[in-house]
Design goal:
Elements (H helix, E strand, L loop, with lengths): L5 H15 L19 E6 L1 H6 L13 E7 L20 H7 L12 H14 L8 H15 L1 H7 L5 E6 H12 L4 E5 L8 E10 L5 E2 L23 E2 L4 E4 L8
Parallel strand pairs: 5-8
Antiparallel strand pairs: 1-2, 1-5, 3-8, 4-5, 4-7, 5-6
The structure holds 2-acetamido-2-deoxy-beta-D-glucopyranose (NAG) (5 copies).
One 2-acetamido-2-deoxy-beta-D-glucopyranose binds next to loops.
Length: 254
């Protein structure tokens, strides 16, 4: 669990790679504009937990954290006439299938999940220049995911799927020590007869300039993004600081 010194080196590389790509963007902003947002959540989910939440057939979930989406806070469905068009992201499809799969419906040419993410979140994110097309929105999300490299970072700090439980505070502290920012971690509450929550999502926050920032709520940031991508009757919520299960395999309890 203890981060080795090597991580700071890796983090250093990450920062260099990251910041060299950044430009300063200026945006006209009105407090009253209905489509104003302040930060983006890059949402990773743990496919095993997603499968556990669903009644669908979901046979062999990937054993790595995949992308759920890149979500601006406060807003959704900002432009209903800007339709998802998979041809626009055809160059990205191999990476999309690997890193942004529809965990619940594994048919390779299903694009419904990406359409949903575009319609609901992408059309809002697209108000800023670095994300203002489908190719940029999906492409930059894949870039951010690869630069964060959550899967490697978790392994390096010794957090891997296990039948023994983790303290949530230890997971949060490890993430904060590696990335220098506080992410938002979501869990599936304990089911009846269970005592531990199950980790489900790890969200990192970014500024409009696509720089990492803390996810902590500031000023009027208290609006909680409803999650309409329906995984079933169960819902994720912010993890409590209690014992946490990070499952390697899907186990159904009924
Ligand atoms: C909505 O998207 C359409 C199609 O891309 C575009 O022509 C229009 O300007 C957009 N509307 C707004 C308010 O951004
Ligand atoms: C989808 O995008 C492709 C490539 O940009 C374009 O040629 C095609 O006309 C678009 N289809 C629709 C229905 O807009
Ligand atoms: C799925 O993709 C394959 C090729 O990858 C294609 O032959 C097939 O027609 C596609 N199916 C649908 C329903 O689009
Ligand atoms: C956290 O604790 C609260 C209060 O006991 C509970 O309502 C909530 O479901 C718990 N969340 C998780 C993810 O276990
Ligand atoms: C995040 O918060 C911590 C302490 O709460 C602070 O030390 C750090 O500088 C913040 N990072 C950023 C990028 O704002």
């Amino acid at each position: 669990m203890k981060p080795a010194t090597g991580h700071y080196l890796i983090l250093g590389c990450f920062c260099l790679a990251f910041c060299s790509g950044c430009t300063s963007y200026k945006f006209l902003e009105s407090e009253h504009h209905p489509h104003t947002w302040k930060k983006l959540f890059l949402v990773h989910h743990w496919p095993v937990t997603v499968c556990k939440m669903s009644e669908n057939d979901c046979k062999d979930p990937p054993q790595y954290w995949t992308i759920h989406g890149l979500w601006p806070d406060k807003v959704d469905e900002c432009n209903r006439t800007w339709h998802f068009n998979v041809t626009e992201i055809k160059d990205l499809l191999p990476d999309m299938r690997q890193y942004w799969p529809d965990v619940l419906h594994s048919s390779p040419n299903r694009t419904q999940f990406w359409k949903h993410e575009w319609d609901k979140h992408g059309t809002c994110a697209a108000t800023v220049e670095p994300l203002n097309s489908q190719k940029k929105y999906f492409g930059r999300t894949l870039d951010l995911y690869q630069k964060l490299d959550l899967n490697s970072c978790l392994l390096k700090v010794g957090i891997k799927p296990s039948s023994t439980y983790y303290q949530m505070t230890a997971i949060k502290e490890a993430l904060t020590s590696v990335y220098g920012v506080t992410p938002k971690v979501q869990c599936l509450p304990p089911e009846e007869g269970e005592e531990v929550q199950t980790i489900g999502q790890i969200e990192f926050c970014f500024t409009k300039e696509l720089e990492l920032r803390n996810c902590t709520n500031s000023e009027a940031d208290s609006y909680v993004m409803p999650n309409n991508w329906n995984f079933g009757p169960e819902e994720l919520s912010v993890c409590n600081d209690t014992l946490t299960y990070y499952p390697a395999q899907v186990q159904f309890y009924n």
